Amino acid sequence: MEGSIAARPLRAGLPDGLAQTLADLLGDRFTRGLPEREHHGRGESYHPTRPPDAVCYALTTDEVSAIVRACAGHRVPVIPFGGGTSLEGHVAALHGGVCLDLSRMTRIAAVRADDLDATVEAGVTRQQLNAHLRDTGLFFPVDPGGESTLGGMAATRASGTNAVRYGTMKDNVVSLTAVMADGTVIRTGSRARKSSAGYDLTRLLVGSEGTLGIVTELTVRLHGIPEAVAASVCAFPSVEAAVATVVEIVQCGVPIARVELLDPVTIAAVNRHSGTALTEAPTLFMEFHGTAAGTAEQMALVGALAEGNGALGFETAADADARARLWRARHDVHYAVQALRPNGRVWSTDVCVPIASLPRCLAETRADIAGASFPITTVGHVGDGNFHLGLIVDPSSEAELAEAAALNDRLVRRAIAMDGTCTGEHGIGSGKVKFMDLEHGAAIGVMRSIKQALDPLGILNPGKVLPDEAD
Amino acid sequence: MEGSIAARPLRAGLPDGLAQTLADLLGDRFTRGLPEREHHGRGESYHPTRPPDAVCYALTTDEVSAIVRACAGHRVPVIPFGGGTSLEGHVAALHGGVCLDLSRMTRIAAVRADDLDATVEAGVTRQQLNAHLRDTGLFFPVDPGGESTLGGMAATRASGTNAVRYGTMKDNVVSLTAVMADGTVIRTGSRARKSSAGYDLTRLLVGSEGTLGIVTELTVRLHGIPEAVAASVCAFPSVEAAVATVVEIVQCGVPIARVELLDPVTIAAVNRHSGTALTEAPTLFMEFHGTAAGTAEQMALVGALAEGNGALGFETAADADARARLWRARHDVHYAVQALRPNGRVWSTDVCVPIASLPRCLAETRADIAGASFPITTVGHVGDGNFHLGLIVDPSSEAELAEAAALNDRLVRRAIAMDGTCTGEHGIGSGKVKFMDLEHGAAIGVMRSIKQALDPLGILNPGKVLPDEAD
């Protein structure tokens, strides 16, 4: 299958006519100021800043459509921007163009508690949504670290600590409103819990990273806050023992809500950053959802499995406050790790493998990194087979960046050889484009045909997800 | 967005050159005999038989690729065929062409109990897979009625009675091997539980009904057989009372495994067909999965909700045999209903609406059908908001078919107005193409662009899923 993406070159720089159109449309919500452009040209990882030529702040789907149509008319790239928490260079303006910031679209259009769903604009964060849901007995479970927007989370198919029980954005987005490359506004799917009516455009746009369309509104599934929630912290003599426990939990079908691995280096960083006093050993943070009796049953079973693997202790968080502190500490790991090295940047790896291969993948990886010349942390959503190394590099050191890249390269090849993926939840962006052929083979041709069909000018977030054909 | 599907006309009839190629390739697995062609031109519903020009039985992915390539060379349609259980005319050869029967591809390539997945060829049925899994402690949950193949179930995004707990084919297919319109073989995704690596081709092909590619192999998720399984039958004074109970079960977040509604006409049909002695009243069939204590808790809560809605009795199936008889009877409803009228055919409707709208949708629908001139049954996967009317029509009566079509038309418009879908699980086929514009609006243009990009000659199952542009 052939497709020639952006056969006609994209326009470099910002044509005067386009600048005028956008200024007329948006007033002071259109800007070419350098600080704002630089802020919009980087995420939270090691990728260098690549500022766009201008930034537009949209307030409505119609404005997004008008901006895209104007850019299409001038063949100028459009790069959607949410919370700026990308880890793989998704927002870098590799070919210049206009950054379309959706973070001001923060309206919660509807909460339908009886249907267990809500419709929100793309700029709403999970924190905002959950605060809004406070009195309904419902919550939205997908929880990447940071203040990500739901639009950005849909675009990268994000997940987090609850995915082992509640699934990822793929499972929790019911329907989307999106602006396509020619400005057409579509809505994907209905609010029915299931449907066999045609192609699943919702799932096609989820994870497409703004390269096929721009998500402006989402309907998401909500879940009932469980009657009982219990949390545990369990230290182990080795990473291997902790992971063996997790594999057994999954294989036994325990409906655990969260099960997170933190290695000793990470625990030390958390203790320093969050003021906790955890034992500096490989540790699982766990959470159990259900009825009071059900969570007690789950904890008893998991406690027995942990003991069988030589656990050093199985402590239960005393109350809701202790639980909240525990998960706040877990969510702040990225920042805790970053604080380990002043002026360092965290290069977060993200492989995910079938659960039975996780112990071997982790063991081989930890052997491989033993001699690294910079600090490395290991944390993982291990119930999903997904873990992150935090490579804390000096971004000004070519040698360290090269060493990190080589290490990540070996890790990704190891995971793909185990029938896993180069990214469990961070996305491809520009950082992992080079692994797409290896992971997908001939299927890349199909992805390319879809991109070519839906964005024939190649203006939507160019350089992301798909390798250039010359590669 | 524009796309002109099959701008160049498809070839009518079977060119001699193609017949020779296929005969050379397949020997006696290529046939032009009328009985086999007729068998392959119909499903299990009211749709008239539309035989293909020939039938090919493939044994391998490579053979499927060769057949598709040969047909593409002659611009002849290819219609995939599995168990022949389609309800919406999916297999009708509307433009002639070659039926590609995958039902002999029945190899179970791998069961990876430790990873909770299995890889099977497209012709494997769920019954075959579950029999094969007997000693592993695992099962595959998706269970449409009939002996459907897993390939066909993926193609129609099928579900069944377990979807309320375990999801549909969308949630239970991990990865696919598929043959695209030019014969290219692709594999979609890895076996990782989650991934953010590019466009979700798995979910794009699931539900595409053979119009974008032909599924030849699937990796599916397996689930642990729960420690305890309990089943209940509960009769109610009215359909309204039964449905009110279901809505409360879902809103309370009870993790019920199955909850099926059968109206009194259906119960009578089941009693006659399956030799049961159920009270002829609106009835819920329910199943609970978990630990012994957990299922007991669920049943106590559901029993209380049922009592609050005036249940006439809440009976528990005594043992595994009684449970098996109950669900066998439920799965045979299609045939039980068909037996209500000799020479009748069942036209099964399939709307699905958000759960809070289900009571009103059912009430308005039951009022609408009160004066129908043929028998009508109501059954439903009500935990999903999905129900089926069984319109038992005389297929030789134009008047009855017109009455059924008008009734279904009103039902579909009612469901779509409630933000529901025309089909929860049966698919679009040719039978519901006319509702696609109403349900999807501008998104149809995007679907059309994808179809045009992936099947530029329009040879894959033409006339299905998407309306002709002239419509």
Automatic annotation (TrEMBL), chains A, B:
Cofactor entry = FAD
Against InterPro entries, the record matches this protein to: FAD-bd_oxidored_4_C, FAD-bd_PCMH, FAD-bd_PCMH-like_sf, FAD-bd_PCMH_sub2, FAD-linked_Oxase-like_C, Oxid_FAD_bind_N, Vanillyl_alc_oxidase_C-sub2
Q: Please name the GO terms that the record assigns under molecular function.
A: D-lactate dehydrogenase (cytochrome) activity; D-lactate dehydrogenase (NAD+) activity; FAD binding
So which residues are the signal peptide here?
none
Q: Which one Pfam family would you cite for this protein?
A: FAD-oxidase_C
Q: Which GO terms describe its biological process?
A: lactate catabolic process
Looking at the record, the residues that make up the FAD-binding PCMH-type domain are 48-225
Quote the EC number: 1.1.2.4
Cite the Gene3D superfamilies for this sequence.
3.30.465.10, 3.30.70.2740, Vanillyl-alcohol Oxidase, Chain A, domain 4
Family statement: Belongs to the FAD-binding oxidoreductase/transferase type 4 family.
- Descriptive protein name: D-lactate dehydrogenase (cytochrome)
